[in-house]
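Progress narrative, Year 2. Work on HTH luxR-type domain-containing protein from Rhizobium tropici advanced from sequence curation to structure prediction during this period.
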Amino acid sequence: MHCRSFWPVSWPCFLLHRETSKIVVMSNHWILPGNPIFPARTLEETQYFLAELEACTTQEELAKVVIRYVEPFGATNVLVGTMPQIGATKRQQIGHILINAWPNDWSARYFSQNYVFKDPTITLVREGLESFFWNEDEVVGLRSGMRVMGEAKEFGLAEGFTMTLPSLGPEHVGFSIAGERLELSPENKKNLALVANFAVYRALRIRHTQQNSSVLKLTAREREVLQLAAEGWKERQIASRLGITDHAIDKYMRSCREKLGSRNTNHAIALALRKGLIS
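Result:
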């Protein structure tokens, strides 16, 4: 067993069994009606999941591993992201997401209603509250968030738990898990913190790698055109501002879509925001 440090010394250092990673088979539990028993995650199991996270190369792979880790706690969804600035557009808000396994319909409503600036969990992460369940006084006491949290229940996010984590930059990262009913012991919360910190680190590294590879693909003019499109400019307006033809703008946008592997312009903008190519 050896220790590898992946981030500043103030972050946890993880111990990984490289040669003998083993999955611990949890014992069977009798589950009584109305009183579910959620099994604990042992430290050895947690180390196994850390090794799995290290092997991930995409955000989608990270989300699948984290979901499998938190399922015994009753969680069915996870969302991880840095905090957007006040006044950020919908596209910019989406660009702050690092790991996304949230209900699609809820995400659509959440961003269309601009709930990010009313969400009490976002407020508390900004303030640096270390961790909290969504039913604690700090959350329910914020009136602005009552509607947000109430609507979240309609999408299977009845109970949740959020941690505030450091990032490689000045902003905090919010790590949230949710489901119909959560059960987290102090030991499980401690082990979850290890997984959460490492998942955030891997997500940031994956984004950095993608950003570097994409920067080499997009030209300065393509990034400029995509930035203006993200700010709401129409193609004809962009052409007028840059002093080039509509046909040239169409060509730049088509090139951006192809290089980013996107379905349409909105998807290209979302991917560019997520990769940090535009702001």
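The CA atoms of residues 213 and 275 lie 10 Å apart. Residues 218-275 form a domain with the Arc Repressor Mutant, subunit A fold (CATH 1.10.10.10).
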